[in-house]
């Protein structure tokens, strides 16, 4: 979804374009390509979804999706991880998971890549919170820092390995620490 002219596309026109890799997002009338994930980003994302789903999906509390297009509030974004509560999962007429998610995730997780703007990623989380997201996480692998953004509260900083990270209400029973997240990056021989 690369914009080739100076013409501004509407959200509907953007959504009609074919998908590309890397994915593009539609934010404030602009088409913005997402940076390609690198090793640390991919590792955390690859471990996070099955870890969340091993508790949340198994107990039918919710479902975590990697790189899922979510369209809401005049934007179309592709969070690194989008988690939807079970009650809000979009389904098609057959009761299968829908292909199109025209809804805000209940929990949005972004993993900062080295060339990504901290401000732009934070703005994406704040936009989701302003449209009903219950929780946002911003994970910075290089700084070994996680900011949690509970809805209608101040962001919470986490750096200590033993710190237990907050999760949305519908994910109770899921417990992750800073050490769990960044421990996935260690290569043991």
Instruction: Please summarize the sheet with the most strands.
Output: 6 strands, mixed
**Weakly predicted, low-confidence segments:** 1-5
Share in helix: 10-25%
Rg = 16 Å
Strand order of the largest sheet: 3-6-7-8-9-10
The tally of helices reads: 4
Oligomer kind: single chain
- Residues in β-strands, percent: 15-25%
Total strand segments: 10
Return the string of H and E elements. HEEHEEEEEHEEEH
Instruction: Write down the overall mean pLDDT.
Output: 92
Structural class: alpha+beta
Shape descriptor reads globular
Distance between the termini: 41 Å
Blueprint (SSEs and pairs):
Layout: H1 11-16, E1 24-27, E2 30-33, H2 39-55, E3 62-66, E4 70-72, E5 75-77, E6 81-85, E7 107-111, H3 118-130, E8 135-140, E9 145-150, E10 156-158, H4 178-183
Parallel strand pairs: 7-8
Antiparallel strand pairs: 1-2, 3-6, 4-5, 6-7, 8-9, 9-10
Structure description:
By secondary structure, the protein is α+β, with helices and mostly antiparallel strands. The chain has four helices and ten strands; from the N terminus they run αββαβββββαβββα. A six-stranded mixed β-sheet has the order 3-6-7-8-9-10, with helices on both faces. The chain has a two-stranded antiparallel sheet with strand order 1-2. Helix 3 links the parallel strand 7 (107-111) and strand 8 (135-140). It starts with 10 loop residues before the first helix and ends in a 6-residue tail after the last helix. 30% of the residues are buried.
């Amino acid at each position: 979804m690369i914009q080739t002219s100076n013409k501004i596309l509407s959200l509907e026109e953007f959504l009609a374009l074919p998908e590309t890799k890397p994915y593009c997002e539609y934010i404030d009338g602009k088409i913005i390509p997402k940076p390609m994930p690198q090793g640390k980003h991919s590792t955390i994302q690859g471990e996070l979804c099955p870890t969340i789903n091993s508790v949340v999906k198994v107990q039918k509390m919710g479902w975590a999706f990697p790189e899922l297009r979510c369209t809401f509030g005049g934007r179309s974004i592709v969070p690194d991880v989008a988690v939807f509560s079970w009650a809000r999962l979009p389904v098609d007429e057959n009761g299968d998971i829908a292909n199109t998610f025209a809804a805000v995730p209940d929990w949005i997780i972004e993993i900062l890549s080295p060339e990504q703007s901290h401000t732009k990623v934070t703005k994406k989380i704040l936009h989701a919170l302003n449209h009903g997201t219950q929780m946002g996480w911003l994970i910075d692998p290089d700084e070994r820092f996680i900011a949690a953004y509970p809805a209608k509260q101040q962001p919470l900083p986490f750096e200590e390995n033993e710190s237990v990270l907050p999760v949305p209400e519908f994910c109770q029973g899921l417990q992750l620490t800073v050490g769990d997240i960044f421990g996935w990056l260690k290569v043991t021989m």
